Amino acid sequence: MTAGRPWDVGIIGCGTAGAAAALFLAREGHRITVYERVPDPGAVGAGVLIQPTGQRVLQELGLLEPVLARGARVTGLRCVTPRNRPIVEIAYRNLGPDQFGLGVHRGVLFETLFRATRGEPGITVRCGIEIEDLAAQGARNFVVEKESRQRHGPHDLIVVADGARSQLRDDTALHKRVTPYPWGAVWCILEDPQRAFPDTLYQVADGTRRLVGFLPTGRGPGAADGPPLVSLFWSVQCDRVDRECRGDRFLPWKEEILRYIPQAETVLAQLTSPDQVLFSRYLDVRMATWNTANVVYLGDAAHATSPQLGQGCNLALLDAATLGRSIAAHPELPAALDAYSRARRRHLAYYQFATRALTLLFQSDHAFLGPLRDLGMGLGGRLPWINRQMTLTMAGVSLGPFARLDNPAK
Hints:
- The chain is α/β, with parallel strands linked by helices.
- The chain has a domain at 8-179 and 282-395: FAD/NAD(P)-binding domain, CATH 3.50.50.60.
- It is built from twelve helices and 18 strands.
- The strands form four sheets. It has a seven-stranded mixed β-sheet. The protein has a five-stranded parallel β-sheet with strand order 8-2-1-12-18. It has a three-stranded antiparallel β-sheet with strand order 3-7-4.
- The radius of gyration is 21 Å and the shape is globular.
- The protein starts with 7 loop residues before the first strand and ends in a 15-residue tail after the last helix.
C-alpha cells in the first residue's frame, strides 16, 4: 500500500506510459481515471523492440508472458554498409545467456496493457474524451475536454502521457523545447513466412542519407495464430517522402531496397501499393524537469526522441514503474513527484544524448560523417569493452560508460 493517502489520479492517454502507470498506481490503492481520446482504441502501429528493461517492467506487472507468446526473440543487431562491411554488431548474449530483445507488433503491447487496465479494480477508462487543457483549482486539477469544454475531475494528480505531440506541456510553467527532426521513416509490417529475418534486427546504412532495416515482429494482435511478421523501416527526409517512395517512385524504391538487402525479395513481393506504407516524423522533446507539485509528464510527452536506439516504449515503461515506486515511498505528493524526476534524470539524459548523436550519424545531411562512422564504429565495435558498452546501451541499462541500471524494474 502507498505511503500516503490514496490519491485521485487522472491519466491523459492510454498508450504504453499511461496504461502502465494506471496499473502501478491502482495496485497501490489509488483511484485512477484514464482519459483516452480514441473512442474505440485498437491494436495498430509498427514493430517495436522491447529491451530487457521493458521486459522486466512487464514482468513486474505480470504481463510479460502474453507479450512473449506473440513476440519474436531478437538475438542482436547487425548493421552493415552496402558492401556488407560491419558497422555495428551487437549480441545480447554478451550480457548473459538469457538476455534478448523482443520484437513485437505495437498493437500486441497495446492490446495487452489496455486489456489489463480494463480488468484492474480501481481503474476507470473513459474513451472518446480528448483532453485539451488543464485547469487548476487550489491544490487539485480539472482536465478540460476539447470540443465540449466540459471539465472532468478534480484530481489530486494529473499524469500526462498523451504522446510526443501533447498540447498539455503548455499548461504548466515547466521549461520545454520541442524540435521536429527533418528526418523520419516510412514503414510497414509484412509477413515473413520463409523467415528471411528470423532473429536479428538487420540494417544497411549507406552514408547518412540511406538507412533501411527489418525487425522481426512476431505475430500480430487479435488472431491466436498467424504467419511471422517483419517490420520494414526506411529513413527519409520529411520533405522527400513522395519523391522517394510514392507515385512513379514506388517500384524503383522497392528495387533499391532489394539492391541493399536481396534476401528481402519474398517479403517485398507483398508490397504492391504505396498505400501500404506509412510515414512517421520524429520530434525531439526536452524538459528541464518532468513535474510540478501535482502534474507529471511520462513517456513521449516528456522526452520523445528519434527511434535510433529502439528505446521509446522501454523508457515509457520505466517511467511508469519509477512513478509507482516514488509515490509508494513518499507520503506527500510533491515530494513523490520530485523524487520521480530525480530518479529518471540520469538515465533519460544519457539516452536522449545518445539518440541525438546517433541520429546525426545515421539520418542527416552531413555526408562526411558516414565514412567516419563506418570506420570508427566498425573498428571500435571489435574491442570487447566498447562492444559491451554498445550492447548495454542498446539493452536500455546504461547510464554512461561506467554505470548501469542493475535492476531497473525494482
